[in-house]
Amino acid sequence: xxxxxxxxxxxxxxxxxxxxxxxxxxxxxxxxxxxxxxxxxxxxxxxxxxxxxxxxxxxxxxxxxxxxxxxxxxxxxxxxxxxxxxxxxxxxxxxxxxxxxxxxxxxxxxxxxxxxxxxxxxxxxxxxxxxxxxxxxxxxxxxxxxxxxxxxxxxxxxxxxxxxxxxxxxxxxxxxxxxxxxxxxxxxxxxxxxxxxxxxxxxxxxxxxxxxxxxxxxxxxxxxxxxxxxxxxxxxxxxxxxx
Length: 243
Description:
Blueprint: H1 10-24, E1 30-33, E2 39-42, H2 47-55, E3 69-80, E4 83-91, E5 103-104, E6 107-109, H3 117-129, E7 138-141, E8 145-146, E9 156-165, E10 177-184, H4 185-189, E11 194-201, E12 204-214, E13 217-220, H5 221-234
Parallel strand pairs: 3-9
Antiparallel strand pairs: 1-2, 3-4, 3-6, 4-5, 4-10, 7-9, 8-9, 11-12, 12-13
């Protein structure tokens, strides 16, 4: 492992790795900074690797009944100098919203005019961030998740769709979003930023697994569970980190 002042910045190191991969035609181990300020080796993977894994994945779909509500989220990936990042939003604080102030994927409830749940994910992403996704950028889907905010089971089912974008974009968050944040995939996949933190549940507190992306960004709950599903698909033999 390396201290921060013993190795170049993140974009420099990933550019260097990309050039080596280009000329050697082989994957190389990368270094990524964790929450302690140290760099550690991580496995190199590409968007193509992830696409292939998703193509062979058959996600689980829950049964519907008359009271079932549907929603969808977009898991947006980008590859910058061989560093794959995932897009998150930090939800605005709102009274009565069980996910108020939480880190999440862009997304929301399906409307009657949505052609599909994938369309819901794209429409909601545009409304919340200004990012216009299209079907050509859709590379797969994951098993549906049942919403259980603060361990309270609901009738809401959430369908995750995975997209890959190449373009740079200046986000325009709406009033439902405080921030748009990119987080390196590998720092979550290898568990280097995994932790447990307490959150209010009812009249008490409970400890939850999550990823501490920064002092202001803790990824937990439904979003954390969805990430575990993604990681189990793209990395054979993956097991959830335990603190």
